[in-house]
Here is the input.
Amino acid sequence: NSWAEFVFSNVLLGSHLVRWGSRPPQEVLTIQAYGKSVIERTNMLVRNMSLNGVLRT
Here is the structure.
């Protein structure tokens, strides 16, 4: 788990957890899938920046 995944998962959890209780299961799954794709894209971006020497991890 990268730091970006940790941060983004916590942000996504914080923003959606409060509303999950009143959401239908299908919508919850959609949110989780969206969050997962955001995390994956972010990790890819972070890795690319790391490879290019822009970001030192």
About this structure: The two ends are 13 Å apart (CA to CA). The longest helix spans residues 25-51. The chain is about 80% helix and 0% strand. The mean pLDDT is 74.
